[in-house]
Structure formats: structure tokens, C-alpha cells
Amino acid sequence: MSKYKPTIGMEVHVELITNSKMFCGCKNGMGLETNPNTNICPVCTGQPGAISVPNAQAIEFTVQAGLALNCHIARDSKFDRKNYFYPDLPKGYQISQFDQPICANGFLEFTLKSDDGSVTGTERVGITRIHLEEDTGKLIHEGKDTLVDFNRACVPLMELVTEPDINSAQEAKRFCEDLRLLFRYLGISTADMEKGQMRCEANISLHEVGKDRLSGTKVELKNLNSFRAVERGIEYEIERQTEVLDSGGTVYQETRGWDEKKGRTFLQRNKEDAHDYRYFPEPDIAPFKLGEAYVNLLREKLPELPTEKRNRFVKQFGLKLENASTLVANKEMAGYFENVTSELENWMSEEDHKFEEKDITTLYRLSANYILTELARKVADSEKGMSELKISAENFAELIKIVYEGEINSSAAQTVLEEMFLTGADPSHIVDEKGLAQKSDEVELGTIIGDILLVNPGPVEDYKNGKDNAIKFLVGQVMAATKGAANPQVVMQILKEKLK
């Protein structure tokens, strides 16, 4: 066991999907392929005399994020100039927020998972602040030349800073995954890390067991462009710092980058002291107030959030926590599941007999299992999203119903689902056309089983001599003879009676 423990805090930048950019009227081209330097204007390229005007929708999205993350929403806020020079920063400064961020003092509760995907518990990480700023342009390196594209300049960028509450690389990864899910449920960002719409940085320090958790020297880690990179980069940095300390060396405050190909961090710059950005209030933008009525209106507009939905799925539908978490992790799939359960509820209300609670739970769990296994696999293999699915919720509910009632067995159900996936056809029609209805008639099956026993004296004798597995062979022979249409439970029952 290591004598050091890590302390980790995250900084997450997220591009917001507003209609226009942060301080000008240019279209927000986030995620769209456009020719370089075509979606620009005097404001977002920092031309002399151009006046910046804040994007009200971006402020609204930031407030919603703060409410969803249990933050205090400032009643008075303002924008500031953060002064530094970089080639892709056209103004020579960035309009950001310094001492009066829109949101502060919140938290996110997220699930912890083991390697096999099962949920092992929950964790809470404090949110120090969420503020709003503008994105920079983009540098493109071609050989010895460096080009700059200002299309991304001035895109609304929300920055979230956590408390140093994270204790492992795995926790950091899960935090970022659940944070992205939250943004997608809110509809404020697609947060695609591969496209740079969500960017993560980690602050990592090690402290000796028994000492103050903030006593270590903090190292900032950048270039974490995927959840895998978040986990691997932090793991490597923890190992690197451990080796430095074990050898009697000193960990220096610095900024390091993550090299995905080499699987290691590298020094970018020493950072003995924090940069002096010479913040001062943005003179062209007046301070603004966020009234209580405005905040309450945005609170009412919040959708059901992932944690709430996951807990409801467990309570309302009797799902296991792992299945509920997996469903909720895909917003479209979770919505599809709810539509299927609604169709099942309509069917149950039309039936003459009353369903017991255990039967209702069985139906819900059966539909969740089929969605998470068979359907999810087909969607993944097709490389298409749930939005392109041809199977209506009504037809999927009908498939679950005929499986539940024993009209077809699991093998036939997969055949039916395959045809439904390709064509969107009604499952009952597919069953009729392909002759997949399950045989449960005891007289008919008894005759077939009698013939099977006559031509298989060896397994019959093995079973009588105490080799219980022999009956599985006989069940297989019956299934083959009926082309998989026999009801396995009925077959097993008749076999045991005849083998007596």
C-alpha cells in the first residue's frame, strides 16, 4: 500500500449550444464544419471600437447548470477582462468572470462503478464556482507554419471548477462522465470531448497518509481530451509523483500535458506562482442582476435530471440500480424505455384479470433487459442512434408481452427482434409468417418426446443412473425436432414424468 494519497480537483470547460456567439451576433458554429475565418465579425475578431454585448441565452444556460448542480446563484454579477497574450486570442484579452461568478458553492452526486459496470456506490464532489466566458480561436499547425482560425473565437464557454474532493483517477473519470450527462439532459451542450466541446483539466497533488490532504504540491494536467485520457493521465501523474517522492525528490508546481500516444505526461511550463492576469471589470459591459423571479422561472424549467430519473426508475419500475444507471446514461434510450412501459401499462389496463405487483415488475425488468442487451447491441452494431430506430415503442411492448406470455421462447424472440430491427414490422405478424409460435400442447409434445426417447436409449439410461445432465441433451433433441418452437419448461416437465 502506498504511503501517499492523491487529492484531485477538476476544471471543466464546456461550449454552450446557443444560437449565436457570446458577445456578438455571429452564428454559434459549435461542432459544424465551416471554412476557416468565415463565421466572424469585428466583435469576435477584436477590431478597434467594436462593442461586446452579452448573450442572454448563455447566461440562462449557466444559471440552469448552477441550479442543477445545487449552486448558489449570484444576485449580482459582472464580466471582467482577463489579460494575457496568445496567438488565437484576437482581443489580446479574454472576457471572463473573476470575483463575481454566476454560480458558486454547489455539488454533484455521481455513481461509482466497478470494472464490470456494476454500481458500487455514490460520491459527492463540491462545485467551487461556475462562470461564463468566451472561447478562443484555434491554431492549426502545418509543417513549420501555424495558421489561426477565428471561427471558434467568442463561442460561449462555461467553466466549472470543483473542490479538491476527488481521491482517484476512476472517481475523476466518473465525475466527468456524469457531468457530461447532466449537460446533455439540460440541453445546454452536446459536450463532445472529441470535438473539443468539453475539455477537462486536473489538479493533482499527493500527501502522506495522516497529514493534511492539501499539504502536497499541486500539478496542473492539461490535454485530457477523452474520459479515457482523464483516467490514464491522472493515474500516470500519481505514479510519477509517487516515484519522485519515494526517491527523495521534490514535486514542483507546474503545468504538464498528456501525451495519449506515449501514455505519459510532459512538462509544458513551470508555474511557481499563479499568473497575474490583471483582471479588471469589463468597461463595455455593465454589471447585471439575476432577480429571484428570473431564477425561480429557470428552476421551474429544469427537466428531470439523471440522478432523479435513475432513482425513479429503481423505485417506480423495480429496476436494479445497475440497469437504471445504464439506461439513464443514454437519454434517448431512457426515453424509449419509458415509452415502452407506457404501452405496457395501457395493455395491462385493458386486460380482464388484475396483474400482481410482481408480474408488473417482471414486465418492466424484462423490457429493460431486452433494451439493454439485444436492442442496444443491434443499435451499436448498426452505428446508428436510437433516433433512427425503426421499432416503435408500441411494437416493442408487444414483443415483451408475447415473450412474457410464453407465446415464443427466447430463441424465437431474437429472430423476431432481428426482423423488427430491419423492417419495423409488427412482432405478431412476424411470428405468424415465420411459424415461430411456441408449442406448449402437452399431447403433441408428449408424442414427439416419446419418439426422442426411443431413439436415444443411451442418454435415457445415463439419466436413470444418476447423470442429471443427460436430460439437457434430450431437451436439446426435442428443441431441434420442433425447430426451436417447443416450450422448454413444458418439455422438461414431460421428460421428467416419462423418465420415471
Q: What can be said about this structure in brief?
A:
By secondary structure, this protein is of the alpha+beta class.
Describe the structure.
With 500 residues, the chain is α+β, with helices and mostly antiparallel strands. 41% of the residues lie in helices and 20% in strands. It has helices at residues 56-68, 169-186, 227-246, 292-300, 306-317, 321-328, 331-350, 357-382, 393-404, 410-423, 427-434, 442-454, 457-464, 470-481, 488-499; strands at 4-15, 72-73, 76-77, 80-83, 93-96, 103-113, 119-134, 138-142, 145-149, 156-162, 198-208, 219-224, 254-259, 264-270, 280-281, 288-289. The strands form four sheets. A nine-stranded mixed β-sheet has the order 2-6-7-10-1-11-12-13-14. The chain has a three-stranded antiparallel β-sheet with strand order 5-4-15, with no helix packed on it. The chain has a two-stranded antiparallel sheet with strand order 3-16. The longest helix is centred in the last third of the chain and has 26 residues, at 357-382.
Question: Which blocks of ≥5 consecutive residues have pLDDT under 50?
Answer: none
Assembly annotation: single chain
Shape: elongated
Structural class: alpha+beta
SSE layout and pairing:
Blueprint: E1 4-15, H1 56-68, E2 72-73, E3 76-77, E4 80-83, E5 93-96, E6 103-113, E7 119-134, E8 138-142, E9 145-149, E10 156-162, H2 169-186, E11 198-208, E12 219-224, H3 227-246, E13 254-259, E14 264-270, E15 280-281, E16 288-289, H4 292-300, H5 306-317, H6 321-328, H7 331-350, H8 357-382, H9 393-404, H10 410-423, H11 427-434, H12 442-454, H13 457-464, H14 470-481, H15 488-499
Parallel strand pairs: 12-13
Antiparallel strand pairs: 1-10, 1-11, 2-6, 3-16, 4-5, 4-15, 6-7, 7-10, 8-9, 11-12, 13-14
Helix pairs in contact: 2-3, 5-6, 7-8, 7-9, 8-9, 9-10, 12-14, 12-15, 13-14, 14-15
